[in-house]
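yo, Thermonuclease is done. seq:
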Amino acid sequence: MGPAIADPVMGFARSKGSCTPLALVDGDTMKALCDGRGVVSVRFVDFDTPEMAGRCSSEIWRAYAATWALRWSLFAHGPLTTTMRGSDRYDRVLVRAVSGGVPVARRMIETGLARAYAGGPRAGWCSSQERTPVRGAERDIWTTKKTGRSA
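structure:
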C-alpha cells in the first residue's frame, strides 16, 4: 500500500530542515519534499518497523500500528527537523529526524513498535508459529494451516 495522495495529518505536521513530510508510506518511510531533490521517498535512520507487505498477519497489523504511531508522533510533538544522510540501495533519501527535541527513532522504539537498526540484515517480525506467508492462495492469512483453496 503506497502513500495517500494527500495525508491529512501530515499536512499539519510542522517541519524544518532538509525535508518536508508529505505522506507516510509506513512506520519508517515517508514521501517528502527534500531540498535539491524534489519529492522523494525518505527512510528514517536508526530504527526499523514491520513491513506493510509482511510475512505474517501479526507483522502487517504491527506495521499499521507503527505507521499510525509515527503519524501521531510527527503531528503531536512539535516541529520535525530532518538531516539528510545520503541514500540507500533503493534510492531512498536517508534522514535522521528529531521531533519536539527528541529523536524520532527513540520515540518509535519506546512505543514497542520499532527496534533499533543500524543497517545490514534485519530480524523478522513473525514468531516461529506464524511463519506462514500471508500471500499465497493455498494458505489462510489468519492461521498457519493450509486451506486447500485455490486462487
